[in-house]
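Limitations
The structure tokens in this dataset are predictions for the assembled complex, not deposited experimental models. Users should treat interface geometry with appropriate caution, especially where small molecules or nucleic acid strands are included. An illustrative entry is reproduced here so readers can see what is and is not provided.
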Amino acid sequence: MLVAIKRKRLLEVTVVCIALSIMKDDWQFALRSSVEQVEEGDVLAPKFDEHGLMPCITRHAATGEILMFAFMNEEALRLSIDTQQAHYWSRSRQKLWKKGETSGMRQNIQRILIDDDQDCLVLEVELTSPDAGGEEASCHVGYRSCFYREIVDGQEGPALRFIESEKSFDPEAVYGDTPNPTQL
Amino acid sequence: MLVAIKRKRLLEVTVVCIALSIMKDDWQFALRSSVEQVEEGDVLAPKFDEHGLMPCITRHAATGEILMFAFMNEEALRLSIDTQQAHYWSRSRQKLWKKGETSGMRQNIQRILIDDDQDCLVLEVELTSPDAGGEEASCHVGYRSCFYREIVDGQEGPALRFIESEKSFDPEAVYGDTPNPTQL
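Predicted assembly:
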């Protein structure tokens, strides 16, 4: 009898815990009701573009370096907020992209900022190193940041100059035969 | 006779100067020929999206703060490179936008970075203060940066918290009756 009551109690507690967990993750993005609400309010009312995407700038939380630029859809933003792990929408692969799922180069979110009209994000992240070895980095080409070149004056107009002198990891060792996302 | 020769010489020198000036500004963006050229080369071969636009992240050259996010078309990028003054494409007004032309809050470019696949830019800029008075800033709402709020845990899901405590200038004094670019 006592065992039966304890089991029933355990079941009740479990149900309540699951319900609370669902409620916590079941938040909604607010509707956009006015320019004042969007610009001066404390309500998260993001605007996704005609493709359902929002641009996102990612920078290193400790150094401030701009590491990469990508897009999020609603699911990626929700997962990034809920898990504090960076998720994006891969336009080249047309799928949700948890950063680091192939490479091990994860991004642990320290802070998320949003801009005045709530259609652009800044992620401040800490990085992890590639599973296959190398230094912490973010760019699939092997450099620490995707912004590894600056535009300079050349002989016949603008040219590029590398500002990172060497790669942080070997992209072949990390990505193997995974298709390169760069499109011409 | 001597005056006529001097005039002719002056005309020749003027023509040569104008020709050289046109040649210098008459550079072309390179065609994109291979992934290796785009990712590992020193040739500027930018990719604009289906609307002819490229995303651009602007940060303060001295402090590293991310100030704003906007888009450039080919003309805006060309003008930004040639004049070292930030130019963008205004999507809300559908016109070329020289930053600061209304407000006086210009952006003097110190460096331009481009990413691995050459479809995103970082501008590092110094700011000027509004003509109507106030501190140097970048955001039309009056804050120094457009990213003046962070996403935090709220009672019923994510909410926003201001990380800038006061405005750098009075937007009404600076912009007057200019339509607000924020769209719902």
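Some entries come with short summary sentences. For this one: The first strand of chain A starts at residue 54 and ends at 60.
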